[in-house]
Amino acid sequence: MTMQNDKLIRMANQMADFFRSQPGSDAAKGVAAHINDYWTYQMRRDFLDLLSRGAEGADPLVVQAGAYIDIPDSGAPGAARDEGAARGDGADS
Question: Among 40, 51, 63, 89, which residue's CB has the most CB atoms within a 10 Å radius?
Answer without folding.
Answer: 51
